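Re-run with default settings, no changes from the original entry. Doing this only to confirm the output is reproducible before filing.
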Amino acid sequence: MSVKTLTDAPGVSDPPEEPRPRFTLGALRRAPHTGLIAVLIVVVVATALRTDSFATTTNLINVLRQVSVTAVIAAGLTLLMTAGGMDFSMGSNVSVTAAVGAQLLSHGHSTAFTVIASVLLATAVGLVNGLVVTFTNVAPFVVTLATATLLDGVALLVLGGLSVSIGTRMFSLGNDKVLGVPTC
């Protein structure tokens, strides 16, 4: 037994549907964090209206300087998480790198050497994490959590639990401008 279907003549089709609006007020209300964003906007506008120094380029640059390290770490983690990975050792990597850099500076090494050594150390830690996760069956959660614990201990050993004075040699890294843009 066969089933017959009726079709339109060639070239005849239904009229195109009306395009649906992509953005609606209802969709905005259902979006997560809408309330938080609204409160943030209200606070920023209220503060800008109450003080003369809030809505200035100096304040904006100051805020950007304060979040720069966190933003760099967040950018790296965003790429990693987009690829399906995770890394709990990034903060500890920053702390051990800063500890080693401070010790190098306090022992008289040049700023250029210290920066290069710090970048190489941080890269080596990330490379070791990546190799262990890639070539073993250990979960990234376990590897990076163990690395974070190890690095926190190394930072404590390097600094001996004390503050290290590095003088004023690194101040230019945070106070200079390159092509008119603050370096940090």
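The chain has two domains: 25-55, 68-182. The CA atoms of residues 74 and 90 lie 10 Å apart.
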